[in-house]
Amino acid sequence: MPRTSSQRSPARRLKVDDYREVAGEYYGTPKELWGLALPAQKGTPRAVAKAALLANTTLLGIDPKLRDLDLRKVIPTMGGSHVIFSQTYAGIPIHRAYVTVHMDGANRVYLIKNRAVPEELLPPIKQIQIADAEARRLARQSVKGRNLRVLSSEPMWFPRKKALRFAYKIRLRRQTPSAEWIIFVDAITGSVLSKYDNLAMATATARIFNPNPVVALGDWRPLLKRRKPVRRVPLTAYETVQLPGLESSGRLDGRWVTTRPTKNRIRNRSLKFEFASHEPGFEEVMAYYHVDQAIGYLRSLGYTGSRRIFSDRVPINARATKADDSWYSPATRRIEFGTGSVDDAEDGETILHEFGHALQDAICPDFGQSNEAAAMGEGFGDYLAASYFAAKKTGRKRKRLIPTVMTWDAILFKDPNPSKPPCLRRLDSRRTFKTFDDEEELEHDNGQIWSATLWDIWKAVGRDVADRIIIESHFQLDGFTTFARGARAILDADRHLFGGKHLTALRRIFRRRRIGPI
Ligand SMILES: [Zn+2]
Fold it and tell me: What does pTM read for this prediction?
């Protein structure tokens, strides 16, 4: 590959048009500046990174001379370099206060991530009240089990929302069952500020479909044998993933999800959840993984902290019935999956559809009381599943698979047109609200009017905008809502989140689907 010509130009202060920003949660400074296109630079990645930071200390809220940033490492990769600094205060490191600068092979900086604590939030220095030995004792006391060994103890600043607490970071090891905790003990009050099992978080792995074998293989035909779904799905249809934030108990109890209501739930102390789809436990792992990731996605959109949507762990029953049926129960707030035909929880899109019901109910309790609201519930679930996994649909059949959902769950549902994939439902219905049939049992049919409307939005404005305005619109809906109110809520959400940038496109879609008044 020919070398791109580098030029030496002083790093410059970024202007508003130069970047896109992810706002920080507590500090009032950006957590991420992305979409940068800075010019190529000569010099070492370290020097280039420093220059980029020095030119933007005000924007990032960091020391004007970078006095409190220590170079941690420079990671050269195939695509460029990643330069990592960590912040210290009074000579003591601040937990997770990293600033990282990412550049391509020609040292063009394209991303800056920033978790530095701004100077004005640094607290006055206090005298340590709790001695090291006492902190170790408090740490041991906070976990269960014998044979506990302290591996290390060091002073560290621990950020709690806006405030920094002076603490000890203590690593504590337990042999059986194996666990390794990181515990922060407040050096002034002696209280335990944070405790997590590092080992469990680092090593839990799982094998899953993402979202299902039809999408993974890009085709449905290899998965049918004598008009039945194959029992042993080809290995290439699986993905191996990590399960972050799992407790070390060996059960699927994690940061946001638990499979507690599942009978005979799996327990695997080695934290390897690598089953094949015909083995028991696979559907439980699938449901756990996809709901956990979906909540992570909501958090990435900003629904975290005081804006979080789920205040408790979402409980899942992965094997609730032998029937071919799944549901969300507003009474127990559980998501429940059936095992008839293809196990429902073997299809990530079925999981996301049911999660959609849980999400709506968490935002507006008892969603779906009227026929219109019920249809919107079904339509939203299908939309969420299609939007969430669209990027996974690649290859020659991408176009055919994109407007479908639950192609594995419903692999036996043949489309009369043999070039179209089998699927439970499609998102490209041409129906308008004029054909809404006001009967209770037609919620899935009517739902296709709403899912197609939402899908029109997705196609017009893209996933990111569509997901954001559609999810945000739910906060002004209620259990008896209507298509028209739903449409107006989406228009409002666009006004509040994007200054009404997409109103013309949105109105055109609602008018075409005969939904209104808007
Ligand atoms: Zn449903």
Answer: 0.65
Task: Check residue 1 and give its pLDDT.
Answer: 38
Q: What angle do CA 371, 336, 292 make, to 5 degrees?
A: 105
Measured on CA atoms in the order 433, 434, 439, 445, is the torsion positive or negative?
negative
Q: How close is the Cα of 431 to the center of ligand 1, in Å?
A: 19
HSE-CB for 246 with a 13 A CA cutoff: 30
DSSP 8-state assignment for residue 364: S
Q: How far is the CA of 355 from the centre of ligand 1 (A)?
A: 9
- The first and second tokens of residue 261, run together, are 């209501």
Tokens representing residue 135 in the block: 């902190």
The first and second tokens of residue 437, run together, are 């049939």
Q: Which fold has domain 132-199?
A: Nuclear Transport Factor 2; Chain: A, (3.10.450)
Tokens of 280: 């028991």
Distance CA 316, CA 372 (A): 27
Q: How confident is the model at residue 201 (pLDDT cuts 50, 70, 90)?
A: low
Domain ranges (residues) in the chain: 16-119, 132-199, 205-512
- Ligand 1 center to 374 CA (angstroms): 9
Using the predicted structure, report yes or no on whether residue 480 has a pLDDT greater than 60: yes
How far apart are the CA of 136 and the centre of ligand 1, in A? 51
- Which of the two residues, 306 and 187, has the higher pLDDT score? 187
Average pLDDT over residues 302-319: 92
Cα of first residue to Cα of last residue in the chain, in angstroms, is 55
Q: Helices 503-512 and 443-461 meet at what angle, rounded to 10?
A: 150
